[in-house]
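pinging the channel bc i need a second pair of eyes. not urgent but kinda urgent?? the chain im working w is below, pasted from the shared doc
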Amino acid sequence: RLVMSEPYAPDLSLTDDYIVVHDATSRVAMFVDLMQPRNVPFRTLLGHPERIVERLQWLEDKLDFDVIVSGHATPQMSGTKHDVAEQRGYYRDLTDAIATARAAGLADGSPEMTTLVRSLLHPKYGAWRRFDEFLALNVQGMIAWRAGKSPAAH
């Protein structure tokens, strides 16, 4: 039985309606959609990437849990604090790969940029669920959010 100690609002964007649920007694946390172990983020990201990374760090640092549940993902999945750290790492590595592509003179969101980003991230994240399906959308979302625009496709 889950006894919610307190719901927390992640505030990932001005329009998000997510909550984080935590039961300290059972040492379980739940963050639907955002925290899915070994999955690239959904489409164009579910909020501003800096805020997502802050909230993932907050999960690691402030909530006492052994298991984090993703919610309605199929297949059902759960993870640990290590998985939260890996997810934060993906956002950092995606940011760095986009910066590398820009430094190489590639246009934002171009097929060439996506190809380079894919080649840089594939060794570490290529086996993650939805890597091939959502990487180009992740690139578009990262660029849009950092430019102060809320992407339409999330």
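so Strands lie at 20-23, 28-31, 67-69, 78-79. and The chain is about 45% helix and 10% strand. — does that match what u expected or am i reading it wrong
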